[in-house]
Amino acid sequence: MLVKPSDRALFKNQNYMLLWLGQAISQFGDAISFVAIPLLVFQLSGSPINLTLSFVIETVPWIVLGPIAGVFIDRWNKRTVMMAMDLIRCVIVGCIFFTENVYLLYALGFLIQSAAAIFAPARSSFIPQLVKKEHYVKAIALSHVAFQTVQVMGPIVAAAVIGWLGLRMAFIVDSMTFLLALLFCVMIKHVETSANDTVRRPFLTSLKEGISYIGKSVVLRHVTYINLLKAVIQSFIMIGTLLYMKELFHVKGARSDQLYSLMIGIMAFGTILGTWLIGVKEAVIHRRFLILGGLSLQGICLLLIAAAPNVYVLGSLFFVSGFALSGATSPVSAFYAEHTNDHIRGRVYSVTNATLQMASIIAFIVAGAIANYSSGTLLFTVAGLLLLLCTPLLILATRSSLSTVTTNVILRPQDAMEKVEK
């Protein structure tokens, strides 16, 4: 496939490519830790409840700090914020290598996610300052491709590292990726644009603008509903997969850890393939049908996973499930990108992240309770049924909004506030 002129212009943007490369490297390390942390928690505690607790603790910063951070990120130098958060995470992740106490691991996980909750909206808000407006959706798509690629490679490398060097070496690898990301960020030659009027607004007013902006945008509100459903399902999949490997296939130790890593990698590979196909066919298939069709197909796959007779069938179903998930990934992000004003992105993304993490924390608690009294099989069954029951409701809810979106309608922050005050 030939590279379009607009794509070549994006690749020639040195500042954006430095940011993209640095974050691709750090996300690679994250993908390894994403697999390694639950395994270490389970290794230290041996309890599904403790495993659930670790997920819950790591989501709290996104709920508490996320919306607050969004207000200040719209005021601060975003490049400086990103460098500081990379340095903090480099140090903290390295400390996990020496951790022998599960409660200390909880504390370190909380600090890592606190830095991540500040970093994520800063990065999302920084991209529009590095690329032209007509290239923004392309930049988002390229970032998603990088993320999904490392989601494939990360678990595979994690399986190799865990098998050959031991579980804890995964955290050393992740720590080094944050250091590399920091160095790439330092190399970005960029002058931060002047502060917007958020600097002169009271804190609570600025926070309220971000919340009301989402509430008054029909498109953003509806794609947030979709993201909420995805967050709940992902929580069930995370706990269900780990327990499924250990319980149903009766494998223990490093082999079950490798099998868990492999399944997460296979699902991510399906997602990246689907993301690439969407980039080719998005003009042919409407985003609404990609989103809702993908959710339906994933629901069917999760129900079949619960009845998988062997690991080969299981791997195939994880691949198709990841492929289906891509239908509700890039299109949703494109809706957010097209319907959010640059000067309020930090607050919108932070509020959205906090909302999604709140849904995740509830889902993790429910999934942990189910797993404690049942098995990973039931978690997949519940997740599949939720998708198949909720998808028709989403079809009805989004029929009048997402199906008619043809232009990039963007509200100003003051417009959102005026609608609330009336």
Radius of gyration: 21 Å
User: At the first level of CATH, what is the class?
Assistant: Mainly Alpha
Separation of the first and last Cα atoms: 51 Å
SSE pattern: HHHHHHHHHHHHHHHH
Rounded average pLDDT: 77
Here the CATH topology equals Growth Hormone, Chain: A
Count the helices. How many? 16
Uncertain runs are 406-422
Protein model, in words:
Residues 15-402 form the Major facilitator superfamily (MFS) profile domain. The chain crosses the membrane at residues 18-41, 53-73, 145-165, 225-246, 258-277, 289-308, 314-336, 348-371, 377-397. It comes from Fictibacillus macauensis ZFHKF-1. The chain has 16 helices and no strands. α2 (14-45) packs antiparallel against α5 (102-130), α4 runs antiparallel to α7 and α11 packs antiparallel against α12 (311-325). Helices cover 80% and strands 0% of the residues. It has a single domain, classed as Up-down Bundle (Growth Hormone, Chain: A). It is an all-alpha fold and 422 residues long.
